[in-house]
Design a protein that fits this description.
The complex is a heterodimer of chains A (266) and B (187). Helices cover 70% and strands 0% of the residues of chain A. Chain A is an all-alpha fold. The longest helix of chain A is centred in the N-terminal third of the chain and has 26 residues. With 187 residues, chain B is of the alpha+beta class. Chain B has a single domain, classed as Alpha-Beta Plaits. In chain B, 16% of the residues lie in helices and 18% in strands. A 3-stranded mixed β-sheet of chain B has the order 8-1-9. Chain B has a two-stranded antiparallel sheet with strand order 2-3. Classes of the chains: A mainly alpha (266), B alpha+beta (187). At the A-B interface, helix 3 of A face helix 2 and helix 3 of B.
Chain lengths: 266, 187
């Protein structure tokens, strides 16, 4: 059982929300003639989420004054690659914000932001797929992070979508939340049939209030709300982020390590 | 040819006295709650006898150390003799190594706010001495071997109760505990 790392929860959650909003903004602004009502506010929010997440991550480090060293092992360390990808993503977001202040954001920049954002999430997925945690030493972290980007990102993006596109954003959110619900309910059950450590991780999830709070607050209640109103209500993004917080806390706290089972059957 | 140092844990000789862990503690004076060497009891599911068996473990100084590969700050290096060394002055305290190691070896020190782990007493090795844990073991259960010349056919790399991660290549070798013998007196 790991300890709660609030900075790490905020870093992953806020940066994934930023990527989700950025991808949706890029797709919408690139594909539609009308574009968002408030492009500057939208890119400003993306930059704000990113900056808040990165600032939170500094509190996770024991020695933030040595943070520059985090890029010294890009050759083999996924964490180095993740930070490098987010630096590039941040630079592109800053460029998009600067462009939005002056007029429409160019197509190549929008496409670059979306692609680099997804690449950054892939790097993040590899960082949190360590060999010591067999339940997630695979593709799951990337899938989880992409789903968070889809749900939290589309929820926040609803603030900036024009009225005509609210239905589309609500559809993206509903689809993401529904897929999340199926995957998050299925994965711990699949873990139950794994080896001793993976099965124990599955049991830890299914018996954890954090996990069920996430399912309820982060997915079920928002899905019902969107199904009833056919749009994303103003309060829903806050609820989704709140629910995702519980889910991410479960992700970091409940993953068992192979080292925790030494001396017992695997 | 350079040496390739490794620990050899003879579980048949280990009595679970924790002297190796204490010797390590005496050598490095780690903060309370932090242990670089730990003696794990082997569960009855693996060794179902009234006698008990133990596994004394510290860093396994792997062939492909995931701590070294995963450390974003390049705070780990591997010496030519196989010893994986953590450099505290380069550590940024990101705790990534705590998750990447399948054996749960690196520990986070909340006082120094850095990771730390067994260094196979490389300073002692360089001075021609044995690691503190090996020197302290009263039964000879723990020894330092050179894998380039070590050829004990009974020694294995992955005993039951030890994570099976061949891709990482832990250097520690184990001799399994013996099955208990029953001596009956003729009536």
């Amino acid at each position: 059982m790991e300890t709660l790392s609030l900075p790490l929860i905020l870093f992953t959650l806020l940066t994934q929300a930023a990527v989700g909003v950025a991808v949706l903004a890029a797709v919408r602004q690139w594909q539609t003639a009308d574009g968002p009502q408030r492009p500057t506010a939208e890119w400003g929010t993306i930059a704000g989420l990113l900056i808040a997440g990165v600032l939170a991550s500094f509190f996770h480090l024991g020695h933030p004054e040595l943070v520059w060293r985090i890029l010294t092992n890009v050759g083999t360390a996924w964490l180095s690659r993740e930070i490098l990808a987010f630096i590039v993503f941040g630079a592109l977001v800053a460029l998009a914000l600067w462009s939005a202040l002056r007029g429409p954001v160019s197509g190549w920049l929008l496409k670059s932001v979306a692609v680099v954002g997804v690449v950054a999430l892939a790097m993040m997925g590899m960082t949190y797929a360590p060999a010591g945690q067999p339940a997630i030493n695979n593709i799951w972290p990337f899938v989880f992070f992409m789903l968070t980007a889809a749900t939290a990102g589309s929820a926040v993006a609803s603030f900036f979508a024009p009225e005509a596109k609210q239905g589309l954003v609500a559809w993206v959110f509903s689809t993401g939340a529904l897929i999340s619900l199926v995957i998050y309910l299925a994965v711990p059950c699949v873990w139950l049939s794994g080896d001793a450590v993976v099965a124990a991780t599955g049991r830890a999830f299914l018996s954890s209030p954090l996990y069920w709070m996430f399912i309820l607050i982060g997915l079920v209640v928002p899905l019902i709300a969107v199904a009833r109103t056919r749009r994303i209500p103003g309060w829903l993004p806050v609820l989704v982020l709140f629910g995702e917080f519980f889910g991410r806390a479960a992700f970091f706290m409940l993953m068992l390590t192979t080292g925790s089972n030494i001396g017992n059957l695997y | 040819m350079s040496k390739r140092y490794a620990f050899h844990v003879n579980m048949a000789l280990c009595i679970g006295c924790d002297t190796c862990a204490m010797a390590c503690k005496n050598q490095y004076h780690q903060e309370a709650g932090i242990v670089w060497r730990k003696v794990y009891p082997v569960s009855e599911a693996i060794y179902p006898h009234r006698d008990r068996a133990w596994m004394s473990l510290a860093c396994n100084h792997c062939d492909n150390p995931p701590c070294l590969e995963g450390c974003p700050a390049s705070a780990y290096t591997k010496r030519d003799d196989g010893v994986v060394v953590h450099h505290p002055d380069l550590c940024i305290g990101c705790q990534q190594c705590l998750h990447t190691c399948p054996f749960g070896v690196p520990q986070y020190n909340p006082h120094t706010k850095k990771a730390e782990k067994c260094s196979l007493c490389w300073e002692r090795l360089d001075a021609g001495l044995q690691p503190a844990c090996v020197q302290g073991c009263p039964t000879g259960a723990l020894s330092l071997v050179d894998l380039n010349t070590f050829d004990d056919p009974s020694a294995i790399q992955f005993p039951p109760g030890f994570p099976h991660r061949p891709e990482v290549g832990p250097s520690t070798r184990f001799t399994l505990p013996e099955q208990p013998k029953i001596v009956r007196r003729e009536s």
